[in-house]
Amino acid sequence: MIQQTLQGFLRRLRRWLAWLWQQEGTPSERARGLAAGVFSGCFPFFGMQTLLGIALASVVRGNHLLAAAGTWISNPITYLPLYWFNYQVGCCLLGKGQIEFDLSQLNGQDLWTHGWTFSSRLLIGSTLVGGIAAALTSGITYGLLKKQPKAKQRNLLYRRSNQRRH
Q1: What are the CA-CA distances from residue 92 to residues 39, 95, 109, 121 (Å)?
Q2: Residues 37, 63: contact at Cβ < 8 Å?
Q3: What are residue 164's phi and psi, to 5 degrees?
Q4: Is 40:52 a contact under the CB 8 Å cutoff?
Q5: Does position 147 have pLDDT exceeding 90, yes or no?
Q6: 26 in any annotated domain
Q7: Distance in angstroms (rounded) separating the CA atoms of residues 127 and 5
Q8: Residues contacting 88, CB < 8 A, separation 6+
């Protein structure tokens, strides 16, 4: 059973790498696009992560499709552990803060203060974790794409030059 699971994982990894190699752009553009998506995916902006990833990919001149795919780092399976970890990183940087309150005594100002305490830690942690994850993703992806077989690179360049003529 473990062997079948490992074989399935390796098969999916090979398919993903093949898909990655087929995307448009230089290895650097593809790596930047994927990294932009991973960075954006580390933030708890549900419904906006893909748009943010594509916008960031435009800024860093990365592949937009890979940026959208990179945001999948946060998904229903990883939301809770990823954002909990980001929050903990933020708490390490900013301190725990005072998030203890009695619901019967809660007023608007307390809610705003506690909300800001929580949000600031989550956003700071998301920024740091996203930056590190994006840097690692970019480096690893670029390294994998630079090792692309020379025949595939020539084929890709040939196809591009033909597209520009038409």
Answers
A1: 20, 6, 25, 9
A2: no
A3: -70, -30
A4: yes
A5: no
A6: no
A7: 33
A8: 125
Helices (H), the chain: 2-22, 27-41, 49-59, 64-70, 79-94, 108-146, 150-165
Check whether 22 has a pLDDT greater than 60.
yes
* pTM to 2 decimal places: 0.73
Tracing tokens 């933020």 back to the chain, one arrives at 90
Q: Phi, psi (5° rounding) for residue 112?
A: -65, -45
Residues near 152 by beta carbon (within 8 Å), at least 6 away in sequence: 21
Q: How confident is the model at residue 140 (pLDDT cuts 50, 70, 90)?
A: very high
Looking up tokens 């990823």 gives 82
18 part of a folded domain: no
The structural domain count of the chain equals: 1
For 140, list phi and psi in degrees, rounded to 5: -65, -45
Does residue 6 lie in a domain region?
no
Q: Give the range of the structural domain holding residue 84, as residue numbers without chain letter.
A: 37-154
